[in-house]
Amino acid sequence: MIARVTLDIAVRKEFDYLIPEEIKDQVQVGSRVKVPFGPREVLATVTALPEKSSYSKLRPISKVLGRNPLLTGRVLQLARWIAEYYCCSLEVALKSVLPESVRQERSGWRERLFVRACAAPQGASPKLTDRQGEILKVVREWHELPLQELLKLTGTTKATVKRLEDKGLVTISHRVSERDPYAGEQILPTTPLTLNDEQARALAAINTVIDNDSGSAPGRTFLLHGVTGSGKTEVYLQAIAHALEQGSGAIVLVPEISLTPQTVERFKARFSSGPSKTLVAVLHSQLSTGERHDEWHKIREGRARIVIGARSAIFAPVEPLGLIIVDEEHETSYKQEEAPRYHARDVAVLRGQLEQTAVVLGSATPSLESYANAKRGKYRLLEMPSRADEKKMPLVRVVDMRSEARKQKGPPIFSIKLVEAMRQRLERHEQTLLFLNRRGYASSVQCPLCGYVAGCPHCSVSLTYHLHKERLCCHICGYEERVPGTCPSSECGQSSLHHIGLGTERVERTLQKLLPQARIKRMDSDALKRKSDYRRILSDFRVGKIDILVGTQMIAKGLHFPNVTLVGIIYADLGLHMADFRAGERTFQLLTQVAGRAGRGDVEGEVFVQSFTPSHPAIQHARRHDFVGFYEQEMEFRSELGYPPDGRIAMLTLKGRSEDKVSFSADHLKSQLETECAGFSDLRIAGPAPAPLVKAESFFRYQLMLRTRKMSQLSRLLADVIASVKFPEAVTLAIDIDPVNLA
Ligand code: ADP
Ligand code: ZN
């Protein structure tokens, strides 16, 4: 009997081992094992049980970890696809698929002392003091509880409880105690809402696929295009309920940034708090290693049937799986930025095909990729064009900041109209959200005499001035320095530096001077010192202790505050100037999402979009809530250049400390590709060119951009080419298939 394994260490190869007779029943595909490798032992995952091996003299597996295989066969299939399509080794793919906390040899369970009541003794009961009697009563009420909790509840000591044990009334023993990241929260149950027609139609289509698990692949994936506030979440909730009724579970992916307590609560409130008490497991990066371990096993053992999580939750071992939901499917955070560079939305669609489940991709602003797939008939399009609760879409006004600059004599932060609108809201006790996607006070500091700009010594960006810290900071690598009193350039050394550009700190400061009576709070990653700050600010905002909330993309998504009737977008052009063909699409999405925060209550919402390029199509289409118009215009430009979704991109980035070596290697790689891919008909190779961010964290970066319509084929070819090309030692190559970040 032979097991083929992938080792946890990077060797880019699979190895065969013998399965010793005494553990043969425990070794399955997906089992974690320990095997001898050279002089040491390493952990590995069983990926196949082949009939025979082409090697003789196989060594035996030393040990099997755990009772059940950790990986299901289907998740293993996903890992293989990821390795192939995204050009990485299987062990790298497996690293993402199985979280570190469950890969370890030691079991990750936390053991604690538990006190348990014994059956009442026959005959005369032992004599107890009043105190002992009280404690025993508590234990009997609970039947069983952690010792620490008993001590807290009764204010007693371990010695006292021990005396009860000596009398044979209770036992104290080690037990596994499950960590619950949401313990101690009271969530009020909710019941399903009566759906409106649009919602009902969408749900019916999804439920039909959930019911029929033998349908053909293309019909199983939906794109749910519903405006902000159209009630997509309610559709998700009812589709999940339907999957549960059919005996299967569900995975809900949400972007990390919107995995807020508010979001998690909506799911727990429907499923965990009600009579059915279905466990909802939550997976995200804020969990401790132990919490992640326990959440994962709750899923693996089938106790949690619903998983809500960020990107990597797509690998959650839910069995059987009936439904996958990818909320805000256009979000770039679904793409992993290090190897394996997979896109969780695309993995979701593939998993749906492998497991014959329904997949729902939801968004108010779908990615052009997904919308194009819907138009081509690869996905089924479900439209929800109006808000669920009859609320109107907010009125969006675009303010031309060029004419404001003339009126106000100098680049303004706030247009006169926006300030007026905020004043009105203050008088009416309504709330305002102000959005600017940049932290800090000023985006750079500059000498007005010689033009010197303080830059990061490790990255090709200017340093951002942070007023509160009184420091200059790099937003790429985190480098900080103190603010120089005078211009540090050698010829100058005279004047003090000026603040150029805007950040949220400056918005907050300036606003407080304009509206001294307003209660203003800032929410960005600088303002949040502790984990709990986020919740505190949001709950203060909810109960009306804050009039105006200023923030970065943290406040752009998913928040639902009925009393917000005004949204101001301070500088809508910020993202338009990025060297990225998706700059327009990102801006359209962001503006639409932010605008969607307004008018979710009884009063109609109003949005001010401040822009220096007010006629830009991304801004104009967002103003009219016109996704389809934007899509059609943008597609023309994409098709002309062979950009996605028309073609596909592979970005090859070379990195190293020596710019010469990096640039030389990029040239070398290009000529290799040109030779090896000569027969590849529609391949276009652009570059090499310095990356938009040419230096980051002291590494120089050069890029080659490959465009084709046949990416799977190109991936395979790339894997071969890469294996044969030699680079200088200090130069590394990263392959990013379907990149979302071109910087
Ligand atoms: P989306 O996820 O599409 O942005 P939400 O699910 O957050 O929208 O819904 C917006 C609001 O509409 C929520 O307050 C929700 O409770 C409410 N809502 C959703 N569906 C209905 C319905 N059928 N009837 C009444 N209110 C609804
Ligand atoms: Zn830096």
Total number of distinct structural domains: 6
Helix content: 25-40%
Q: Determine the structural class based on helices, strands and strand pairing.
A: alpha/beta
CATH architecture of the largest domain: 3-Layer(aba) Sandwich
Looking at the structure, the CATH topology of the largest domain is: Rossmann fold
In the CATH hierarchy, what is the superfamily of the largest domain?
Answer: P-loop containing nucleotide triphosphate hydrolases
Per DSSP E runs of 2 or more residues, the count of β-strands stands at: 30
Give an overview in words.
By secondary structure, the chain is α/β, with parallel strands linked by helices. Helix 1 (73-85) crosses helix 2 (90-97), helix 1 (73-85) packs across helix 11 (344-355) and helix 7 (197-211) packs parallel to helix 8 (232-245). The mean pLDDT is 88. The structure holds adenosine-5'-diphosphate and zinc ion. Zinc ion is lined by residues 456, 458-459, 474, 476-477, 479.
Question: What is the gist of this entry?
Answer:
The protein has 21 helices and 30 strands. The protein has 743 residues and is an alpha/beta fold. The chain binds adenosine-5'-diphosphate (ADP) and zinc ion.
